[in-house]
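Note to self: keep these together.
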Amino acid sequence: MFNSKVKPKSSEEIERIRESCIIVVKALAHVASIIRPGVSGLYLDKEAETLINDLGAKPAFKGYNGFPASLCISVNAAVVHGIPNKEEFKIGDVVSVDCGSVMNGYFGDSAYTFALGEIGEDVKKLLTVTNESLYRGVESAKTGGRIGDIAFAVQDYCEFTHKFGIVRELVGHGIGKKLHEPPDVPNFGKRGNGLRLEEGWTIAIEPMVNLGSKDVYQAKDNWTILTRDGKPSAHYEHTVVVRNAGGEILTDHTPIETEIKNNANIVNISRNI
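Structure:
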């Protein structure tokens, strides 16, 4: 199964995407250094936008289909696409921060979920499992494999093994000269199904996983996606290149996780269960 709309990127294009991805990670690492109870999403948004601009890039999300901010900040039952506002974070909040940048005509995209202060063991497990599933998806992004291999890796770990809800309405995507390009990269599916992965494809893999039901709805702001049952959700994302040995990560989260270790207000979520 071949889709002529999906084109491998050249080495030069991949390096340009990598440059934008590095800026995204720097912005998310800065967020990790300053997020705490008592600050607002609007504050984080302004800080990230300033940093992105200072590094010679532009926020990818601001103005995208009318989105009003530089970050998507989704709190607790908000899955994705939350609009930053003046409401201050509280102890126990789960805050997903999605960031994109564009520089020299190429995009980068990544997301990380932060837990502030004390959270229940069930919520901690949700974040840990979702984060781990991202890397299982990345490992499955192998040349000659299928989109369904990535999808199954995430679903198998989150839904079949740990009984969390995988959101169906939202998926990962290709990325390059546009923020969203073909192909779609679902977080649910069957191994061996879907498009055959080609060396040099650049894709964003992003598990969106709910503590309870998979069901979601859109808020009246026409952006924020919320869990139907009101339970928390988690979201992690990497931009990767399809390679023979599995996905090459362009959005290394190490700087973010270093800042988390240095910020006593954030629960350190380990990938190892």
